[in-house]
UniProtKB/TrEMBL annotation:
PANTHER family: SENSOR HISTIDINE KINASE YPDA. The chain crosses the membrane at residues 20-37, 57-75, 87-113, 133-156. It comes from the Bacteria. The keyword Transferase applies. This is Histidine kinase. InterPro entries: Bact_2-comp_sensor_kinase, HATPase_C_sf, Sig_transdc_His_kin_internal. The keyword Transferase applies. Keywords: Kinase, Membrane, Transferase, Transmembrane, Transmembrane helix. Residues 177-256 form the Signal transduction histidine kinase internal region domain.
Length: 384
């Protein structure tokens, strides 16, 4: 389903337009509503409008501050992280601060403006400063809760709608992927038995070839059986990637300089299967395979509180074909899968220099249990 860009796009032009439209609507709504109840400005409805529009514009600065504090601080940092006690605390604090600021503006800014525009003889009977502040505080609290609640409701409805659309798209793509996998799984046991027979026959006469067959068999087994799972152990994914690199290294007759640094304590973390293989495959396809002298590559993986940081670097030559490295099908598929599987929980950057290609990928991974890890913040910002 196509989403309307004015509502859902994160491009600055659309975001600015919809935010302006929202606040202009709120300003006009406030002005029209309170023009009917501006008791301190007797007379025709249109005669009260300029004063009320001015007051609404002043109070809107408070409403904007409150709304964006909720949208970009409270909701992403606490509510979406299921930290409900902190959500309630910060929401109440923001609303009370907005109410106090509204009360102060009403006493020291709005009231002098009314006296200047209406004259003191047309003002309501004098009240104590404390009573005026209290009534203004309550009015500010009511207005803050109204506009803050409205902005938060729109934000959350958008967030949940987009999340639901992502889930539906992911289910559709998973169904298509499983169908393609079933088509590819033509007698896999026969394939593995044949590979094992070739391995047994070449073990004595061609040990290098037998080793390659064994690694190829492990990779195919992972693709066929583990690839259909929603999550696999990170250790298995890294093992499969290292088997693939080892196969490529044999193809280079050990002339490929490889540096691999991956952690060992990864059993409790899981990752979407076959997410890293296209990155490594791209490294060989568009990088080292074009280097006639001293081909090299480096793979480093770091883990910290469930955050996996991968850095993949390979040398390359400045050929026109290598420009496809950052825009190939494999990289595009990885980007799409990351958006679907790890929304707001990943950072994926590519540096494509003339002589080196660098991939940096950070993902907040899940644990092997049923619950997600709740440490840290989202890795990308939520947009309203």
């Amino acid at each position: 389903m196509k989403q309307h860009p004015f509502i859902f796009s994160d491009e600055p032009r659309y975001r600015i337009r919809r935010h302006l439209a929202f606040w202009v609507f709120w300003w006009l709504f406030q002005s029209i509503l309170y023009s009917f109840v501006a008791l301190e400005a007797p007379g025709a409805y249109w005669g009260r409008m300029p004063m009320v529009m001015t007051e609404s514009l002043i109070f809107m600065a408070v409403h904007i501050s409150l709304s964006y504090s909720l949208l970009y601080f409270v909701i992403p940092r606490y509510l979406l992280q299921q930290r409900y006690a902190q959500t309630i605390f910060w929401t109440m604090l923001c609303c009370l601060a907005a109410a106090a600021l509204s009360g102060t503006l009403a006493i020291y800014v709005i009231r002098p403006i009314r006296i200047w525009m209406l004259g003191p003889y047309r003002m309501s009977p004098a009240r104590s400063m404390g009573m005026d502040f209290f009534l203004s505080l309550m009015a500010g609290l009511r207005g803050g809760i109204t506009i803050g609640g409205m902005a938060a409701a729109i934000k959350l409805m958008k967030y949940w709608y987009v999340k639901e659309q992502r889930n539906l798209q992911l289910q559709k793509e998973n169904a298509e992927a499983q169908l393609q996998l079933l088509k590819a799984q033509v007698h896999p046991h026969f394939l593995f038995n044949t590979l094992n027979n070739i391995y047994a026959n070449t073990q004595a006469t061609a040990p290098v070839a037998s080793g390659m067959l064994m690694q190829l068999s492990d990779i195919l087994r992972f693709i066929l059986y583990e690839g259909s799972q929603p999550q696999v152990a990170l250790a298995k994914e890294l093992k499969m990637v290292q088997d693939y690199i080892a196969l490529e290294q044999m193809r280079y007759d050990e002339q490929l300089d490889v540096f691999i640094d991956v952690p060992q304590n990864t059993d409790e973390l899981t990752i979407a299967p076959l997410l890293l293989l296209p990155l490594v495959e791209n490294c060989f396809k568009h990088g080292t395979s074009h280097m006639l002298e001293h081909p090299w590559m480096s793979l480093q993986v770091r883990l910290e509180d469930g955050l996996m940081q991968l850095k993949l670097v390979n040398g390359k030559t400045a050929l026109p074909a290598t420009d496809q490295a950052a825009n190939g099908i494999g990289i595009s598929n990885v980007r799409q899968r990351l958006e679907l599987l790890y929304p707001d929980k990943h950072i994926f950057t590519i540096t494509n220099d003339p002589d080196v290609f660098i991939v940096n990928l950070s993902i907040q991974l899940r644990t092997s249990g049923t619950s997600r890890k709740k440490t840290g913040r989202p890795l990308s910002n939520q947009h309203a």
